[in-house]
């Protein structure tokens, strides 16, 4: 499918969707955030990757996964032999949720109300791209895609049928790896993350 192929399934064109998302008011997170961070990548991607929400750097740049978690993600994708430039990358929640602490903005976990409000956008992105594989990184992305509470430890590493069609794959969020204080554990979890990414891509 070409990048500019007309959408045949009744979904809006991606550009129009992205434009509409800049003014999203579906939940209150838009107000303190700098901007909507929409998905990015080729529209004919076979793989879509869904994260949690933009972080501080993504909020400023307007692009997903450009900060510290993005660096881990890039390393894992390279280790898994998947080209990031061929993958569509997006987030379950499209505004940065944070708590101000002095001059810093500290990441705050999105609530179920925010995830469920923002689900509409992820569903639209999936309806347009119709990726063969959608990888959910972390429980927030899992909830967004499956429409129910998920536990990564219990459901990772196997194909999941997604509502509305397509196959999903659940794995950890790269930020989880950054939070592990023990180097041996972090290496082990990074390897498991890479294994999940590779296994998902092998389904294609
Ligand atoms: N973490 C995410 O889940 N998404 C980003 O875009 C950046 C950090």
TrEMBL record:
<protein>
    <recommendedName>
        <fullName>Type-4 uracil-DNA glycosylase</fullName>
    </recommendedName>
</protein>
<feature type="domain" description="Uracil-DNA glycosylase-like">
    <location>
        <begin position="38"/>
        <end position="198"/>
    </location>
</feature>
<comment type="similarity">
    <text>Belongs to the uracil-DNA glycosylase (UDG) superfamily. Type 4 (UDGa) family.</text>
</comment>
């Amino acid at each position: 499918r070409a990048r500019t192929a007309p959408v045949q399934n009744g979904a809006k064109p991606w550009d129009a969707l992205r434009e509409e998302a800049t003014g999203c008011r579906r939940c209150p997170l838009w107000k303190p955030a700098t901007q909507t961070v929409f998905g990015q990548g080729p529209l004919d991607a076979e793989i879509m990757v869904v994260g949690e929400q933009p972080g501080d750097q993504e909020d400023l740049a307007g692009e997903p996964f450009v900060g510290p978690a993005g660096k881990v993600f890039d390393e894992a994708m390279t280790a898994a032999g998947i080209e990031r430039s061929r993958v569509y990358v997006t987030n379950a929640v499209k505004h940065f949720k944070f708590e101000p602490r002095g001059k810093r903005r500290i990441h705050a976990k999105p609530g179920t109300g925010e995830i469920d409000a923002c689900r509409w956008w992820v569903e639209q992105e999936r309806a347009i791209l119709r990726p063969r594989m959608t990888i959910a990184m972390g429980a927030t992305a899992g909830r967004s895609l499956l429409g129910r509470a998920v536990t990564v430890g219990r459901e990772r590493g196997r194909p999941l049928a997604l509502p509305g069609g397509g196959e999903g794959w659940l794995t950890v969020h790269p930020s989880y790896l950054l939070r592990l204080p023990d180097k041996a554990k972090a290496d082990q979890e990074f390897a498991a993350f890479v294994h999940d990414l590779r296994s998902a891509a092998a389904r294609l």
